[in-house]
Amino acid sequence: MKKRMVRITGCLLAGALSIGSFGLNTYAAPVAGVSSVTAVEIAEGQTPAAGVSQALAQCLADSNDAAAQKAAEQAEEQSYYNAILQSTETPVPTTTAAIGSLDWDADDSYRLAKIAMAEAEGEDTEGKALVILVVLNRVWSDDFPDTIEGVITEDTQFAAYENGRYDRVEPDADCYRALEMVQVEHWDESRGATYFERTTDETTWHNTTLKKLFTHGNHTFYTEE
Questions:
Q1: Which residues contact 30 (CB under 8 A, 6 or more apart)?
Q2: What's the rounded Cα separation, in Å, for the pair 78 and 116?
Q3: For residues 86 and 213, what is the distance between their CA atoms, to the nearest angstrom?
Q4: Facing residues of 9 across strands?
Q5: Please, what is the Cα angle at 94 between 91 and 98, to 5 degrees?
Q6: Exposed, middle or buried by CB within 10 Å (0-12, 13-18, 19+), for 138?
Q7: CB 183 within 8 A of CB 84
Q8: What is the pLDDT of residues 42-93, one digit of tens each?
Q9: Integer Cα distance of 55 and 41 in angstroms
């Protein structure tokens, strides 16, 4: 039995397709992620619909699978960020620190993740969390502004804010993981630190004026005497 090849251009939504050999030209947007050209064999005398129905069905099935997988991935990612940005759990006492109020909104969550990225991009997750905690320790102190935004934007306090890096960067996944450690898991190994600087052997205002607490990664953390 003689057969001929027919080229199906595009796997299209709602069954629309273009079959060059038969002059059927119906257009719609191709389904993302599905091959744009499919070739099928049609027996001599067989109708176009019979020859391409199986290929079209498979093409549409593949597109549905791809769409379902993408939707599932997006839902999982959104759920992760919602847990971070919208958590309003009541803090509980911990053995590591008497942690203050963790009830802040999505804008402040973004600011905290952003300052972690600006000041500690090269640090590990705990190093980023420690920068976040320095901001929060100041908020909870009577000696600094009582809002997250006020602490971050206070004049001459954070080098990354002063030099414009804070405005240029966007938080990555590790910054949000650090935020989750603090807000959701109540992790606090900051020992009440309200200052930090890049570790150096040189004499600085920090290491001559403040009480050194500890060093983590490339940062040394301090509190007032």
A1: 10, 11, 12, 36
A2: 21
A3: 32
A4: 18, 37
A5: 75
A6: buried
A7: yes
A8: 445 555 555 556 655 565 566 567 667 766 766 666 666 566 555 444 344 3
A9: 10
B/e letters for 35-44, b = 16+ CB within 10 Å, e = fewer, are eeebebebee
Q: How many CB atoms lie within 10 A of CB 76?
A: 9
Query: Is residue 212 within 8 Å of 220, Cβ to Cβ?
Result: yes
> How far, in Å, CA of 180 to CA of 128, rounded?
11
Q: Which amino acid is at 19?
A: I
> Is residue 9 left, alpha or beta, with left meaning phi > 0 and alpha meaning psi from -120 to 50?
beta
**Which residues have a Cβ under 8 Å from the Cβ of 85 and sit 6 or more positions away?**
106, 109, 110
Question: What token pair was written down for 178?
Answer: 């650090």
Q: What is the pTM of this model?
A: 0.58
Element (H, E) at 153: helix 148-153
> How many angstroms separate the CA atoms of 55 and 62, rounded?
11
